[in-house]
Amino acid sequence: IIHGGMDSALIGIYRDEYDISKAVYSYIKYIEVLVNENGMTEEEALEYFDTNILTYNVEDHQAIIIDDTGV
Fold this sequence. Notes:
2 helices, 71 residues, three-stranded mixed sheet, alpha+beta
């Protein structure tokens, strides 16, 4: 799954043992794109991500989101 408009948040591609590729995104960069390129506040971006991206990202061919917040 490649998320449209999130090229700058894409940090790599993971290929599993079945040769299935998954996009790998930085959590921080994803939020930054939502704020800087989509005009959301940080709070709106976090809510959008939690509601729309994490919820949608549950199938076998999901993207991988790296939590690079350091928390």
